[in-house]
Amino acid sequence: MSVAVLFPPASRRYILTSVVTAVLYVLSIKVISWGQSQLDGPLLWAAILVPVGCIAVQLWATLRLMTQVDEFMRALLARRFIIAACLAFIVASAWGFLETFARVDHLPGYMVYAIFWVAFCIVSPFIRSTR
Which spans are transmembrane here (predicted)? Predict the structure, then answer.
């Protein structure tokens, strides 16, 4: 089987975009973490926009993929996306309550994005129907 059969052009674009944005996301967070003492003011704000831009591009790529696949896959991806988002909201809210009332350690807000994708990976094998 050829790569074109296994991965149609829309899927290849999505995978490439996902890999590039994931690498840039992780690298940018590492650079900000390591260089935080040297970054200040507008330079720090600009550096912070890099991972935020990666998140925006990744979500745009996911939504673009949904427009480029057949109806079944579109519905399947949308259902997985919505359920993963709900789980990420639940985890983030529960952790917020734990921080406020049980005094657990703070979880940075940007972790909601990672929680969403972990949830997406967990639910995807189980959501195989659009119903």
Answer: 14-32, 44-65, 77-98, 110-127
Where do we find the tokens 């519905």? 75
The pTM of the whole model exceeds 0.90: no
**Rounded to an integer, what distance in angstroms lies between the CA atom of residue 58 and that of residue 16?**
10
Cβ proximity of 67 and 74 under 8 Å: yes
In sign, the C-alpha dihedral spanning 26, 30, 33, 39 is negative
Cα 63 to chain centroid, rounded: 12
Tens digits of pLDDT across the chain (131 residues): 666 667 788 999 999 999 999 999 999 999 999 988 888 889 999 999 999 999 999 999 999 999 999 999 999 999 999 999 999 999 999 999 999 999 999 999 999 999 999 999 999 999 999 88
